[in-house]
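We treat protein structure as text, and this decision shapes the records that our systems exchange. The remainder of this section carries one protein's record, kept here as part of the documentation:
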Amino acid sequence: MALEISEFNCYDERQPTNKSSRVQNIDTAQKLWKEGAKLLLSGDVYEAIRRFDESLEIKPTAEGYTYRGWAISRLGRVDEAIDECKKAIQLDPNFGNSYNDIGVYLLRKVGAEKAIPWFERAKRARRYGARHYPCLNLGRIYLARGEKMRALDEFLEGLAYRPGNCELLAAIESVKYSVN
């Protein structure tokens, strides 16, 4: 059997060799993790995890593992959440969400020093639609340390990615008022 690379940068030998079946499986897996994300946002963590599990069984993806990690973190199982994100990185090292999420988990668990490199990696990831989050996270770390100008640089960088973002605008205002 020849190796084939899907649009999700992963290969699963259990997939049928029929191209239309593979596309259907990818669509189904994607639909399931999107359902899981909606369930998670609505607060139904356990049902969200079930959807992510179903999605990953059909087609392992960086998105599936990262979102499953996010759900698991909501249950306080931070080490497992980090492991899920590391699985995502193995499948797709360009998917930025995984790096940012690990940074958030480490920030909560052990502090800023271990989290900073993960936020920096998230900012450099090629495939990341929410690049303003690691900037916001880094800015908050630097602001808490009293490094106001460094924090401001991060907030402004984030604003370049997401103009008009309320969290970033508020963070910039907080720096302005703390300098005066």
In short: The longest helix spans residues 19-41. The domain at 19-111 is CATH 1.25.40.10 (Serine Threonine Protein Phosphatase 5, Tetratricopeptide repeat). The chain is about 75% helix and 0% strand. Residues 1-16 have pLDDT under 50 and may be disordered.
